[in-house]
Structures are given as C-alpha cells and as structure tokens.
Fold this sequence. Notes:
2 domains, three-stranded antiparallel β-sheet, single chain, BirA Bifunctional Protein, domain 2, alpha+beta
Amino acid sequence: MFEQLKKDILQQIESVNDLQQLEKLRVALLGKKGTITEQVKSIGKLPIQERPAAGRVLNELKEEIQRALEVKREELMKIEAEKLSKKMWVDITLPGIRRRVGHRHPIMKTLEEIEIIFVSMGFKVVEGPEIEDSWHNFDALNTPEWHPARDEHDSFYLDSFLLRTHTSPVQVRTMLSAQPPIAIISPGRVYRRDYDATHLPMFTQVEGLYVDENVSVAHLKYTLEKFAQQIFGSERRIRLRPSFFPFTEPSFEVDVSCGVCGGKGCQACGYSGWLEILGAGMVHPNVFRNVGYDPEKWTGFAFGMGVERITMLKYNIKDMRDFIRNDKRFLENF
C-alpha cells in the first residue's frame, strides 16, 4: 500500500515545473491536512501489533519525500537562476547609451563673431536695460508719438514703461553720459509684436554708433563693408539703398551681394543678386540735440542688425522659429 503511494508521490514531485507548484505540492503532502499527515493520523486505527511497523514505514516515506522535495527545489531554483541570468545578461562589449546633447546655439556663435569683428575695429561693447521708458526708446530718437512703431499692436507696454523695441536706447544713454568721440556697439534682446517664419516677438539685435568730427557716409560704408566681408567672406560687397528711419538722415537699407550666385542673380536672392542685412544712416541732428551734442560740431553714423537675420544668411536657415524650438537635431548642425 505504501509502496504505491510512494511511487505516485515521487512521480508528482518529478513532474512539477516551477517553485510555486512545488510549494503547493509540499503543503498537499506534508501540511496539517496533507496526505502523509493523514496517513500518520490513521495509524491509531490499526491493530496494536501493526502500529510500530506502519509508523516506521511512514516516517521513512516522509523523510524520502522531504529529500525529493528539496532536490527538486534546488533543481528548479537553478533553472530559475539560469533564466534570470539570461534575461539580465548584458554584453559589456556593446557601446553604452549616449546622452544626446546639442551644441552652442548658432545665434550666440554669430553674436560673439559680430562683437569680435567690431571690437577689432575699435568699438566698445555696451549693454543697457531691456525695460525702457518712452523717452529713451522713442522721443530721444526723434520718433514722435504718432509714429506707428509706438502703437500698442507693435510694442509691448508695461504701464508707463515698455520692453525695448531696439537697442538704440543704449546709444542714447551712452551719449548722455559721455562726450565724443564715441564708438560703441550695443548687443541685446529686443521685443516686438511679430511672429512668423522671418520674425520673432523676442530677437537679438546689435546696433552701432560712431560719433566724431567730420564723419561721413564714406566712413559708414567702409565700416559695414569690412564687417560684411569678415562675417560672410572676403569676396562679398555691399550697397546702400535710400530708406527712412526717424533717427538717421540720410538713411539706408544695406544689402550684401549674394553668396550663392556672386551677385549675378539666383533663386536664393530673388534674382536680384543682393540680400538685405541691416539698416543704417547718419545720426539725425535732432538726436544730437536731445542728448546735448552740438550737431554743427559733431557728426556720426549708426546701424542696426538682427542677429537672427545674419545667422539665417550665414548658415542658410529658412525658418527663424527653428532658433527657439529647442530641437537638439537642429542644434547638432552647429
């Protein structure tokens, strides 16, 4: 009777495939209500002379089952360990996961290059506040109250102040605190209500001012042509087109010859051979009067450029909004 029971139990143990099933089988065999436990309890029902032999056989069976369970448990644990090892295995010869990083922003690279060029010409870099009052931002620069640039749909107003629309107020502050000769550039962020492929509500501008005796348009053109050749290439030329700005007279739009076609005309330059890069002109006498300079004695030129515009032309970038999209793939190009 016990031999068949032993055979059946050992077969059950051998057929188990995982540790959870093995534990359930152990409880079913040796638990408080297990098969072997019930058999031990039934010894009391046997005749007195048969009880010792039956007890000895059941104890041996119990010990053999415990050994079989332990062997099976170790076997299953080894299998589980091998499975886990394969799952967790790492090929240490494979390259590690690299964290993608961008590069220095193209606007900052261009801005630094612009500053180096003008500093090499003897200009000083001067900065000023981004929140301005209307006098420094408009009135002192000969921009009357009726001028469209002062409308709320063009500028960001903060009660009686506004976010500066250009860095020209830095020029005003410099002239109010110093006497000519003056040669400065004023880089910084400026703010206007624009947002499309070629305009941003916040962008970077560099404006320049040179004031001395007997300054002429020739000085302006020479300075800007040297700048264009250093930033775009020694073969580039510039031209001045008549324009209008309240704070300069005469005023000019400044174009640089197309780097794609060499000024012959192509799709990149709209078949004109030229690309607009900045605005410039001779400082208006009213601006000098507003800062206490004698316009009969002093003359000067001023210019202003958008760094984003220069960067787009320099690196052939089509959409200005790429500068603020935080796309590392874009930054990796620089």
